[in-house]
Amino acid sequence: MPLLRSLTSIMVVTAILSFMMGCNGLAGSNKSGHAEGASRSLGADESAPTDRWTTLRIELFERNNKPVGANSITDNYITQYIQKHFGDPARIKVEFITIPRAEEVGRLQVLMAANQAPDIVFTYDLPTVYNFVTQGKLTDLSPLLDQYGQDLKTVLGEEILSYGRINGMQFAIPAKRVLTARSTTLIREDWLKEAELPLPETTEQFYQALKAFKKIRLEKYGETIYPYGHIDYYHIAPLQYSFWDWGRITEEDLYADPGWIMPGNKEAFKFLNQLYHEGLIDPDFHLDRYAQQFQKDLVNGRVGAATPNTIEPVYMGYLAELQKNDPNAILTPIDPFTNANGKKTKPILEKTGMYIMVPKTSRNAEAAIKYLNWMAQPENYITLQNGIEGVTYEMENGLPVTLENDDANTLLFNYFDYCIILNGKYVSSTDEQLNLKANASIPSFEDFALQSVEYGMNDGIATPRIPTILPSEIKYSAILNDKNDEIFVKVLTAKPEEFDSVYDQEVAEYMMMGGRQVQEEKHRAYQDHK
């Protein structure tokens, strides 16, 4: 790249970052307490002053889902517990840097490019991790993990940690995913009873239920609703998989080929296009990328069915809010989407969650590993995930049982954003059933949660994983992700008579924009690995 272009790029990134800092205090940094700034390295003849504090800056997702009455996500019982029990004994000021969940990859890339990222950052996007690795942006945590991370290594285990290791260097600490069920379809059973319909067991029955919901709510109550909510590329996957011709899809295809060209995928989107034009999904679905409006619509009786993350209505609190608003509401897990062979195929998740990293520019890598190791100690992850014993939970037979009160609702709505080494509540390294019960620990919603997990795992298919960096994926990932969103909206909203041509044209563009290169490189990687 010419020098002038490089300098221009740096100036642009710096300008963007300066704007962010001016408007938001570095994307929402909380201000308080001890001395700011990272500690510098000490020379051989120097010793640290006894009153010196280090500031450890940690990324925190801002989801804009704070319940009424909840404290700030950067200043509450959990953040105070972290400061008191980890920070103060080590003379470390813990500072949380908020980044909008909907913009996390872009914001993180800007901060990393400008060398202004927090000391602990994370993402679910693996190509972004690989991109940082190839740019030399990440700290090799291997020696620090060996020296300060014994509890962390015990909780995560070698298999999980190996997914963050590249060429023998630990560039990321993957979170442990406690449950691998990805998404579960839910339906308003009370509305079904009103329509004299059974719980749907097939795609056709599900479709008929949506039509009945729309008709009855309009004719009987004068309400215009859009029965099927939470419409995005990720969450419609169980429906999508039910249309695929699995007899023509190999494990290699599942790994390497984009969903747009899978046999049967076009038919899946033609069905979604039909739902759109029949008014069965919200015409503004594309404006609700992270389902904030969906939760409000569900709680306020404007959604009859959806396929959110498994157990999400419980752990994010909106099932409780729905029942508070409407005591007669019954939200029930179902498993309706059925393929030609009678299977309920759907994707399930990998064993890893987010990838936690320490930028190479951080001077606090040691403190970062000590923090993650502290988090891996049982008394700490129990508190981070469950709150205050006797106030938000009680221990019963070694299991934290969530209390059903306002304190729990206003404290635990985003517990997973603090306990970042674990995706899902965790109590045992050996008893998976106990971990399952931990994630179904609210008595009123225990059956709902257990049924959700069962359906979320039924006929589940895990996408193969090949441990290699793919240059084409790094190069085209952002472009193709944007194109995915564009295609999704265009094919769902296309005029029915133009659907085929729109679908074919958009998918052809996707393949020309880098999809073909990624596909070919993935096929080669799969064959080399096998």
Automatic annotation (TrEMBL):
Cited InterPro entries: Bact_solute-bd_prot1, SBP
PANTHER family: ARABINOSE-BINDING PROTEIN-RELATED (PTHR43649), DIACETYLCHITOBIOSE BINDING PROTEIN DASA (PTHR43649:SF12)
Cross-referenced Pfam families: SBP_bac_8
Annotated organism of origin: Paenibacillus woosongensis
Name of the protein in question: Extracellular solute-binding protein
PROSITE patterns named in the record: PROKAR_LIPOPROTEIN
